[in-house]
Design a protein that fits this description.
This protein is 29% helix and 26% strand. The protein has 192 residues and is of the alpha+beta class. A hairpin with a 4-residue loop joins β1 (64-73) and β2.
Length: 192
């Protein structure tokens, strides 16, 4: 199966994994809940793949599917963010799919391992946590976002993609990251 076919299969079978309803109203200025727009994005991603045979690759200037993963240490309640070298923002690990990636999940896990320097990461079962479409200097990224669980005692190592790596507590993420990363962290935390 090609990576394009795998991504199509993943998105055809995926449904938004909404966190449980909040019992406390969101804090002022917090991002919208994780669910709205996810089904529309899923359909848009499938439409993109249906009309772009090259829609998995960076060369597709109309936009391309990317894969990312929020690295989580469930034992300590922390997430690892990378200060992206080109964008200068604190983000989850992730990026472009490569020809050697057999599946979208493989791409997310490869990116998380390369960018975090942590061996032995495992994706949170159940498939992607959420989707996020954002404009980058190269094109629109149609990002499929996973969560990766770090082994206890993991030590990160900065890669060429990053200026810095840093562990943050769940409640610290909104102070350093944009709404997309906050929604991914909230969605991941709700699933743990």
């Amino acid at each position: 199966m090609s990576l394009h076919a795998d991504a199509t299969r993943v998105l055809e079978n995926w449904s938004p994994r909404l966190p449980p309803a909040r019992t406390v109203p969101p804090a002022p200025g917090s991002p919208p809940p994780a669910g709205p727009g996810q089904e529309e994005l899923r359909r848009d991603y499938l439409g993109h793949l249906g009309s772009h045979p090259d829609g998995m690759w960076k060369d597709c200037r109309e936009g391309h599917i990317t894969a990312s993963a929020l690295v989580v240490d469930p034992g300590t309640g922390r997430v690892l963010l990378t200060l992206h070298r080109k964008l200068g923002m604190w983000l989850q690990t992730g990026g472009h799919c490569e020809p050697e990636d057999a599946t979208l999940a493989d791409a997310a896990l490869r990116e998380a391992t390369e960018e975090s320097g942590i061996p032995g990461l495992e994706l949170l079962p159940g498939g992607p946590v959420r989707l996020d479409r954002h404009r980058t200097p190269c094109a629109w990224h149609l990002d499929v976002q996973y969560a990766a669980l770090a082994p206890a005692g993991s030590v990160e190592a900065v890669s060429e993609e990053s200026l810095e790596l840093r562990w943050y507590g769940w409640d610290e993420v909104p102070r350093v990251a944009d709404a997309s990363v906050v929604r991914l962290a909230e969605g991941t935390r709700a699933l743990l």
